[in-house]
Amino acid sequence: MTHTEVLTRYVANFIDELYQSGLTDVVISPGSRSTPLAMTFAEHPNIHHWINLDERSAAFFALGMAKQLRKPVAIVCTSGTAAANYFPAIVEAYYARVPLVVLTADRPHELRDVGAPQAIDQINLYGKHVKWFQEMALPDSTLFSYVRGMASRAVFLANAGNAGPVHLNFPFREPLVPDFTIENLWGEKGSVKFHEFFDGSKAVTHHDALKLTNVLQQHKRGLLVCGPQEDDELAREVARLAEVYNIPLLADPLSGIRAGTHPKINVIESYDTILKSKEVRDYLKPDYIIRFGAMPVSKSYMLLLKENPLIDHFVIEEHAGFREPVGMGSHFIYSNPIAFCAALEGLNLLTSDKEWLHKWNQMNAICTHHLMTEDDPNQLTEGHVVKYLQEYTPNRSTLYVGNSMPIRDMDTFFLRTNKEIKVLGNRGVNGIDGLTSSGLGAAAHGEVVTLLVGDLTFFHDMNGLLLAKQYGLRLTIVLINNNGGGIFSFLPQAKEKSKHYEVLFGTPLDIDFFYTAELYGASYTKVTSWEEFKVGLANAYIKEGISIIEVQTNRDENVKWHQQKWKLIQNKLLKELRGE
């Protein structure tokens, strides 16, 4: 075989095996050394390829798509700093447990460390932030089975156990252009998966169940907690478990529990607001906590744990992992969480205090009433943006939420609803980078997606909008513009606003986002009232392409509004708890 035929068959066998293993989407950033991968992906009849010029945006786009599809997505780039630009999204994917197949092209070995252009050390480039790394062999006619095995293994490992990114580095020698006229390009007709993987499910043993029974039957004031997770079935099962045992269920906005048609009778969605007061936390000290999913967004909940390090704390994980950032002694139960819920229901081992549940429900009712009350109907407030989003976001759609203040307002103001709204966010490492691209990735296959972000987050990823323009993607962006980093106004840095505060923390942008919309061909509306906001949303959901709805607020006023709400609610809660 000629060099070109060997190269073509080597790469074609690899890519076809990715498809045979279940991969259907790849995001490609243009480059020369990646030509064999890029062209062959584009040639494959069953893999959808997306072109994104910016590698950082491309990786976050793939991440959002993988979260929405709940399966691996591939990313392809050339050598050098192109691969380095993937790093932020790979770190997020690793900690958020999102499956990505990262394919970087590289110079061949003789062009490394000799001053060749666009050559960096790409061996283990992402370090501990990928689950698996392989330096691929140079193309050879004896290695077609080898590349199929590597492809099959890559897709499996990205999804297996705690999902995450895997990285394969491909050294290629020139010439780089494949030949698609060769016969039997994709291998033997009717081919099936090269490897079949059967991954069993973990379950709690009878012995462990008895140990658990002995601990839990000593207590009556328990809490179920569900943090960020994306399994709809688990959300339903945890809600059912709370109903069966009449236990309060503290549900994070990213838990999948607050929205949907499942029963939510014992769901406490306002727990972050309830627990803001130390006095209230003292009244509501639990005997035990059983937590599913990652650590919740709520800082108030974390304070409850820190103040009560001796309570029995159970963390349910399907696979080995250690997501317990408080540092308290815990029972780690590695089991399929759905099976665990079913087993717990059948054991009849939880006894609950009816007054305990009644108290939590009372607190929740007080909070939701006052959180939803509009003190001034003409005032645009960041928290009530979430209130109206929940009301007017279409059923069976996705809300993709930015970090900093938007996710916290989501935690506070997104209440229980029977609408089927999926709430997604990038909470692996909580960064503000790549959110627009992630939201577009979630919308790539036609899903109705609303992105809620602040102005700094939006500015950080405006490059991502180019992909929407190229592919005609549809996304509604609700942009909260408080001209800077609003979250810092709630932190200790804001208490003494020195001459450095605005430069270091406030970071005002002073950008007119109308021109951003013009640049990328998006529709744009700046609203000045709730009525305009409702109309803007209604119009956005029937339009094609990108719609940007800007809500302008004031950072200082926003802090005062939140603090007044919290103080009022704290006083109401304490009166209720004291029986006054």
> Would you report the number of β strands?
18
Number of domains: 3
Which second-level CATH architecture of the largest domain applies?
Answer: 3-Layer(aba) Sandwich
**What portion of the residues fall into strands of 2 or more residues?**
15-25%
**How would you characterize the largest beta sheet?**
6 strands, parallel
Mean pLDDT: 92
Give the CATH H-level superfamily of the largest domain: Thiamin diphosphate (ThDP)-binding fold, Pyr/PP domains
Categorize the overall geometry.
globular
Structural class by SSE content: alpha/beta
| Low-confidence residue ranges | none
Estimate the helix proportion, in percent: 40-55%
Spatial order of the strands in the main sheet? 2-1-3-4-6-5
Q: What's the alpha carbon Rg, rounded to whole Å?
A: 26 Å
Q: How many DSSP helices?
A: 22
The CATH first-level class of the largest domain comes to Alpha Beta
N- to C-terminal distance = 88 Å
CATH topology of the largest domain: Rossmann fold
Domain Thiamine pyrophosphate enzyme N-terminal TPP-binding: 14-124
Catalytic activity: isochorismate + 2-oxoglutarate + H(+) = 5-enolpyruvoyl-6-hydroxy-2-succinyl-cyclohex-3-ene-1-carboxylate + CO2
Domain Menaquinone biosynthesis protein MenD middle: 218-401
Protein name: 2-succinyl-5-enolpyruvyl-6-hydroxy-3-cyclohexene-1-carboxylate synthase
